[in-house]
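Batch 3, record 17
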Amino acid sequence: MLLHDTALIYGRYMRQSLRSRFALLFGVLTPLLYLLFFGPLLTGLPLGGRGDSWQVLVPGLLLQLALFGASFAGFMIILEKDQGIVERMRVTPVSRLALLLGRVLREATVFVLQAVLLVLAAVAMGLRAPLPGVLIGFGFVALLTVALASLSYALAMRVRTPQEFGPTVNALTVPSMLLSGLMLPMTLGPAWLDVLSHLMPFRHLVDAVRDAYVGSYATAHVLYGALVAVGLAVLAVTVGTRVFRTAGA
Amino acid sequence: MTIISTAGLARTFRSRRGPVEAVRGIDLAVREGEILGFLGPNGAGKTTTLRMLTTLLAPTGGTATVAGHDLAADPAGVRRACGYVAQSGGVDPQITVREELVTQGRLYRLTRARAAERAEELARELDLTGLLDRRCAALSGGQRRRLDIAMALTHRPGVLFLDEPTTGLDPGSRADLWDLVRRLRDEHGTTVFLTTHYLDEADALADRLVVVDRGVVAAEGTPGALKLAYGGSLDASLQDTFLAITGRGPAPADAAPVAV
Ligand SMILES: Nc1ncnc2c1ncn2[C@@H]1O[C@H](COP(=O)(O)OP(=O)(O)OP(=O)(O)O)[C@@H](O)[C@H]1O
Ligand SMILES: [Mg+2]
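Prediction for the assembled complex:
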């Protein structure tokens, strides 16, 4: 039943995404701009990590893509709430977990697709990374998307207007991005900033993907990254499902 | 036989300006196969009651059973037994009528083939046949309403909740909808629980009326009995009867506010 319901919801929203292929491409535009106009500045700079500047930058851009994209996933459901679509589905016997999971798996598919486009563009610009590492990177993008999209849906189900939703999400994502060293390794900064950034869950994900991109898979970074990503996803899906079960507003 | 019964059903919302007691203890007994008109001024608690009875909103007090299923203990049973059409409907304007009907069938766990058949059946019953491949955005108000109801009838529920089903419809479409509701009762024995602000509609369509005001039941009975008791005679208008019960106008969307 859960599988049936999840596949059904996933199919409905995947078809919706495919109808708007333009938006699908548009999503990669921002990271592509970073790649084009920011990437070349880094070549040759001593970034402190192993590997070249592309192996440092691309993992950051991938997670940035997921961070900003997935955090705003809830926007759609505010509209659907107003149209009565959410309640119409909630009065059917469909599994509450499937209502969330079908949606966030669509999100994960979309962002992994965008991540593939981004990596292809990066390869054209000079990125060289081992295939298993690149695949691990996509896995992290998928997990992070599931986690953030679930939280985003949970928040969106609680707020009344998009005007309330947008600023709240912005207030959470921008510091997360800055503190997680998505653009430049945090080790470049003063110690206090480095310590602060370790408190950010995303920091561990970036470190893990950067390791994977230079071909080291059995490292503490990868382990912590995986634990944080899985833990975050489980927690977020639990919270999100609760909201679909009890949604009062 | 009683198909919906509630005892002290209540819901308090928490809001920034303190608690809002939307429904303050409603006792109801709805008979199987009747059309119940649920009336009350704006904000009386009608939609909130419907949302509780359809499992969308957890009550903060009281109990209820719908078609033999306890609301708290067996919400899944309630969901299988009832259909609900919200005040705002619930279809995606970008999707075709057929796709929405098929998805709805699949949400009620029909197989793909059965859901496709059911969509055709519903389209025939609700006069939507020529419209199956149109996007929902391209439907008129009346067609849209029929689609909303078709969606709610997908699993042939014994109880149908309709929240202001005729608001915004022209007189012809309203009459069609009344026919449809009567047909559901007469041919399928469906219990219909509907809210409306149109008192002529309540008078013509409902077997029994329940008037709620400020979250409690203010009066109930057949339209005739209410007119006799509150309007003074069987010839009293339901409008005057309603005013006598609630002390204010029903504030229909298309009428000027009534001075008390
Ligand atoms: N989610 C909510 N949070 C806070 N208050 C709410 C919420 N939903 C409804 N209310 C309040 O509860 C009261 C009853 O609302 P409800 O929608 O049930 O009224 P109604 O009888 O359906 O009115 P109408 O005829 O206008 O549709 C109103 O005062 C409303 O503002
Ligand atoms: Mg209402």
